[in-house]
Amino acid sequence: MSLAQQEKEVLEVQTSGEFEREPVPQSQWKDWKSFLGMYAGEHAAGTEFIIGPLFLTTGVSAFDLIIGLLIGNFLAVLSWRFLTAEIGTKFRYTLYFHLEKICGTRLVTIYNLANGVLFCFLAGSMITVSATAVGIPFNMEMPRLTDTMPTSFTWVVIVLCIGAVISLIAARGYSTVAKAANFMSPFIVLAFLVCGGVALVQLDVNSFSDFWNIWGEGGDPFPGQIKYTFWHVVLWSWFTNAAMHIGMSDLSVFRYAKNARAGWTTAGGIYVGHYIAWISAALLYAVYLKSPEAAVFINNGEAPPVAPGPLAYNAIGFFGIIAVILAGWTTANPTIYRAGLAFQAIIPKTSTFWVTIIAGGLATIAGLFPAFAMKLLGFVAFYGFILAPIGAIIVFDYYFGKKAGITSFYAEKTGSKFNQAVFWAWLISFGVFYVLSLRFEIFLSFLTLPAWIFCGCLFLIFSKLQKRSRE
Fold it and tell me: Which Gene3D superfamilies does the record match to this protein (predicted)?
């Protein structure tokens, strides 16, 4: 590397540090350990304390849950490895800069706004999770499954304090986020394992058949929940992070990887977090459902509350409180970081630090409202359904653009600020399948992949027609 190039890279790090509008230079590439720690921290995290119990509220059976999660999570790992990591290490752009080259600045602004806001809502649900743990020493009233508004003044103060700390960590950039995840993730993984073990003892599980019978053949869903089958579990677990893998959001992460094999590190987070941790958290809730307090709710025809802090505290005491707090942080940190990059793409002259602080502020406000966490299964399905199809634009442009005879990076090469082919492909695919979901009451996770493929195909067709009209 020449001296001039070295000086250029040092200047880039000093002035930005995040390479928002250029490829990540080789001197900043990171080995697989950085990604293993980040994904372990992000996916063995706050959402798991909510999702595991919510599966129980859907009346899912043992086979559907245990085998369905095994398959669905494997499909997610394959998506990260062969789509996201492959393209991320090829170009080394953020999702937003990559899209700008295809879509144009005006269209990508709309997407970035939607993406950033939805990320803030997701991060807000994790702040909610941490708040349920911090509130235990203050005897705070915990939110119920049906709660939407802040439950008390204590709740508001705790959420604001947690949000401020998380936002500052995320605003310091990817390296700080990765270091925080590496530091916290072993502690969190240990907590989930211990919680699961303690819950098995509390449930008097002495054999595999006892464990299997916790779910058995399943049952009726709780009030306000829908019944989950095998395919609900497979597709929901595959697409719970659809925005990150087939939606290409994690291009912003894997652009730092030395090679695409770093995509396999997602398995470390997925199978610890989206398998062991979900099941462990479900066991904690199974213990609670046998309590006199839960019996009161059930007898009144209400769903017992799902509050991660008390569930973990009941199993392992103050160690559980600390684990839930850190688990919320390790999910919210990278999510706010991604949201900050989305907003930074809209206002590129503003520093990444300050737009991330703005994103953290929005996430904190969202965290005040328990509905985002209590309705997490449905929210995550909707969020992936909206954002995933735009990832098909990048995938189809990369893998099929040349064969289809379209112009790759169309906006960059033509100077277009609004790529009509992208806009109509996204709008039509979203509109058609969302109407189908509403009209026939189809669970959105069943339609995420069809919408994604349909969007990619429409993009190729419209791009071909657009090219012909210019010739």
Answer: Hydantoin permease
